[in-house]
């Protein structure tokens, strides 16, 4: 009788252990299958990737702040309009020239040509005479990076009494006005040893290169 009781107890213990093992195994199998499913590689088409990139760019380019920078001279007030994007970039959109508080002329700037991270990275001035005619002109230059630089110069025209954009000036890198010789000098380097020096004269309504010199370039 005692032996029968022992056999029953052993049978019950064995049955419980088998049941517990099956319970432990089942969740592990489910877990493994879920890992396999979540590790499946999702492939996007070129069109889908381009769409995502455009949406991200649109989000970053949202305007979060608008403000103006002002400078007075020549009997005018020059107001440069700035727009700060969500990405942190700042764009200069236009320049309003005011006379006695009223709009005298508006100067247009090409879209996204002056994008910078800080507004002080764009230099604008109204107290320099770049074509040496006795009248100060308005200059706006983005000096950030050699590739992304942009140069704007509006020359004051005595006849029309308006500012006119000078496209030929935009090709001059790092311009410096030399009043004594009435010429514009340009100097910059490409790489560690190559230096470029140019001289320009204002002739027939545009800036013309008159001298060119290269130092440190191997031929």
Protein architecture, described:
- This protein has a four-stranded antiparallel sheet with strand order 1-2-3-4, with no helix packed on it.
- The chain has two helices and twelve strands.
- Helices cover 24% and strands 43% of the residues.
- The longest helix has 37 residues, at 2-38.
- The chain starts with a helix and ends with a strand.
- The model is unreliable at 21-37 (pLDDT under 50).
- The relative contact order is 0.07.
- The protein has helices at residues 2-38, 46-60; strands at 63-73, 76-85, 90-99, 102-108, 122-128, 137-142, 150-157, 162-165, 175-178, 183-190, 194-203, 206-215.
- By secondary structure, the chain is an alpha+beta fold.
- The protein folds into two domains: 58-171, no CATH class; 173-219.
Structural class: alpha+beta
Strand order of the largest sheet: 1-2-3-4
Radius of gyration from CA coordinates: 36 Å
Low-pLDDT residue spans? 21-37
What about the largest sheet?
Answer: 4 strands, antiparallel
Number of helices: 2
- Fraction of residues in helices? 10-25%
Number-wise, the strands total 12
Mean pLDDT: 82
Give me the strand/helix succession.
HHEEEEEEEEEEEE
Strand content: 35-45%
Organism: Chryseobacterium indoltheticum
InterPro entries: XAC2610_dom
Protein name: Lipoprotein
């Amino acid at each position: 009788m005692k032996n029968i009781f022992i056999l029953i107890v052993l049978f019950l213990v064995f049955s419980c252990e088998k049941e517990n093992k099956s319970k432990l195994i089942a969740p592990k199998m489910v877990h493994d299958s879920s890992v396999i499913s979540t590790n499946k590689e999702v492939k996007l088409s070129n069109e889908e990737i381009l769409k995502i990139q455009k949406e991200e760019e649109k989000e970053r380019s949202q305007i979060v702040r608008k403000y103006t920078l002002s400078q007075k001279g020549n009997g005018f007030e020059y107001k440069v309009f700035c727009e700060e994007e969500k990405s942190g970039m700042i764009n200069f959109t236009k320049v309003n020239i005011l006379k006695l508080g009223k709009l005298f002329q508006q100067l247009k700037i090409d879209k996204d040509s002056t994008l910078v991270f800080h507004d002080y990275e764009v230099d604008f001035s109204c107290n320099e005479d770049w074509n040496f005619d006795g009248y100060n002109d308005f200059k706006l230059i983005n000096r950030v990076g050699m590739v992304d630089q942009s140069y704007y110069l509006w020359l004051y025209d005595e006849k029309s009494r308006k500012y006119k954009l000078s496209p030929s000036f935009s090709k001059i890198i790092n311009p410096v006005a030399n009043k004594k010789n009435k010429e514009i000098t340009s100097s910059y380097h490409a790489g560690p040893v190559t230096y470029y020096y140019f001289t320009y004269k204002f002739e027939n309504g545009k800036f013309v290169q008159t001298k060119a010199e290269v130092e440190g370039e191997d031929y």
